[in-house]
Amino acid sequence: MPVIFGCVDGTSIRLGMVVMTASLSGSYPNLTLALGLRAGSPGTQGGIGPQGASGMPNVDLVGTGMPNGVVTASPGTVYRDTFTSGGLLGTNGASQWIKVSGTNTNTGWSVLRGDTGWRRVALPAAFNHAYGFINFRRINDEVTFLVSDVWPTQAGEIMISPGGATGMPGFRPTGRVASQVWREGAAIANSLLGWKSAGLFYQSAGSNSWTYATLTALTAEAWPTGALIGTPV
Fold it and tell me: What phi and psi, each to the nearest 5 degrees, are found at residue 10?
């Protein structure tokens, strides 16, 4: 172990070429020695380090209205639509978007968080019941259809989506899907609620009172940009 020689000069202690300040406090035999190291002269500046990773500008943008065709940004940018109407946050319920393609362009936006709330359209005449209804809702990329209090008056397939497949933009499921129809907790044979290329359909086995069904499926469609169909529930 190296030996360091030092000397005390007034309130300074010199250890080699380093000068430290020193002070005593308290009373004998309980004394406290406080040492302070004086700062040395600045050294020479070091070389320039490597460049850091590029930052992500415009990570969170805020505005009113949908961003496609309006807001210019790069992929990864998040945009929040603060427009409110009819109890929905965001235009048509789309409150948060993310830029997925196109550098410094105003296209390529996709909904990150959206909820249209429940909407309702009238049943076709083939159901002939004043209390029946079709409710539907989209949350992000999932759509749900609820047909309740239905009393079909005929057997077979009954198309129930307004305007067929083209009448529900933004709510059309991907591919063909179907679910069971029920009455008072029991499944009704040969009765389905489903979606196919022609639209939403109700497959009925015949006259049955107070039937209901729920269908939930994924959609790859863009968020609806025009006025939402139906009326809010």
Answer: 70, -115
